[in-house]
Amino acid sequence: MKQIYKSAFLLFLTMAATFTHLNTLSQPQPLFVRLKGVGTGSAVTGMGTGIQLAGNIAYVFHAGGLEIYSVTNPVAPVRIGGRATELPANAGALAGRLAFLALGAKQTLTNDSGAFEIVDVGDPFNPVRVGYANTLARANDIRIAGNYAYVAECTRWTGSNLIGALEIFDISTHTNPFRVACFDTSGCATSTDVSDHHAYLADGVTDLQVLDVADPGNPRRVGLYQPDLSRCAFEALGRATYVHVVGNLAYSGGGDGLRVLDVTDPSLPVFISDNGCVTIYSLHVAGQYAYSTIWNSSFNTFQLVIADSTHLVNVAYKVHWPTAPMQVVKNLIYVAGNPLLVYEITDQPAIRSISHSEGYLTLTWDSAPGFVLQRTSSLADPLWSEVPDSSDRGSIELPMTQGNEFFRLARP
Q: Are 56 and 68 in contact (CB under 8 A)?
């Protein structure tokens, strides 16, 4: 009887010789993303709003508060603890054994209520709140730098208009955080990052504001980036709502796409590249790649795009992708889905299925430029031969032959 072997075994044989660690790739090349694990034990009914990894622990923030997973085995993450909050947790940050939760609820025609909690997660099975502070409006994002917490927030009524802000809190005494400064923004501050005594802010009106926070009690704006949106015409849905800083590069993403800016001189952000007129729904940058979620109208679904982090040259796509925040550690993507999802990144395409009917085999695989389908009749001393007309395809139908057949995808 003919034996059909699935691709997982064959790919295992070839990956050891050809897999290259992602952080050593010198040139962009095609990557592939596949689901690796789904968390268990979650009681969350909606997508998460933030995620932070620390060692083998994943902290997922969501409307109900905080969930903590063990990811020692990424194939089967297990919820081990959590904490409910009075207000939805919109984001979070970790510093040592402490988790900082940005809290707040959106209201109508009034100030949005907000706060942030400081939670001791030294024992992840039993997180305990140790500090709390009210914010002037809904806390959307939070970053920790030294003894200070930087909170992006909106919206607050001033008596004449609604504004956002970056609030700065002294957290040197975790049980008693207190406000030291508030920098008002014209729009809703949704995201912030802090690097080298500068705070970077997305407020939905300007694509990027840069504040000097060397003196946290006296933040002052020193830089601004505001691109011309005329190139996008009606396709632009708004200014940046995400900001991520890595070294001397700032990533600004939102309704007018994703931009890479050189902030070697924070007072003068310089445009490097962008990914066109798309809307960014989530953003993370790690190593040499930028990971973003966009809407793909061709497939009528959201899609993950992995791009070279400097020039935004796309190297991978994954359709039917959740819009939840993500974090990348080594070759794994952790997504704050419902529940926690773990995806694997590899430079090896996978054979998805092998079936047979009426004397023919049908094989499907990840379409991968530069790869061809190969076959052999034995793994003891394999003689791999290329399947004709299999280059740059994602499926093929072949006449069945007698005996065993083994297939793999390889570079010729």
A: no
Beta strands in 309-405, from DSSP E residues, in sequence order: 314-319, 326-329, 332-335, 341-346, 351-357, 360-365, 372-376, 385-386, 395-399
| Beta strands across the sheet bearing 372-376 | 385-386, 372-376, 406-410
Residue 13 has pLDDT above 70, yes or no: no
Q: Which residues contact 193 (CB under 8 A, 6 or more apart)?
A: 143, 199, 200, 243, 244, 245, 250
pLDDT tens figures, 152-194 = 999 887 777 888 999 999 999 999 999 999 999 988 999 999 9
Pairing of strands 220-225, 208-212: antiparallel
φ/ψ bin of 65: left (φ > 0), alpha (ψ from -120 to 50), beta (otherwise)? left
Q: Is the CATH number 2.130.10.10 carried by domain 30-346?
A: yes
Q: Do residues 305 and 316 lie in contact, with contact meaning Cβ atoms separated by under 8 Å?
A: yes
- The residue behind tokens 């809290």 is 103
Helix (H, G, I), strand (E, B) or coil at 234: helix
Contacts of 390 (CB under 8 A, 6+ apart): 372, 373, 396
Q: Tens digits of per-residue pLDDT, 113-126?
A: 899 999 999 999 99
Residue whose C-alpha is closest to residue 193's, from 155, 166, 173: 166
Tell me the backbone φ, ψ of residue 70, rounded to 5 degrees: -85, 125
Residue 365 in tokens = 């695989």
What does the alpha-carbon distance between residue 334 and residue 326 come to, in Å, rounded to a whole number? Answer: 5
CA distance 296 to 290: 18
* CA atoms of 293 and 291, how far apart (whole Å): 7
- End-to-end alpha-carbon separation of the chain, Å? 30
Dihedral of the alpha carbons of 366, 372, 378, 382, in degrees to the nearest 10 = -130
Annotate 99-114 with b (16+ C-beta within 10 A) or e (fewer): bbbbbbeeeeeeebbb
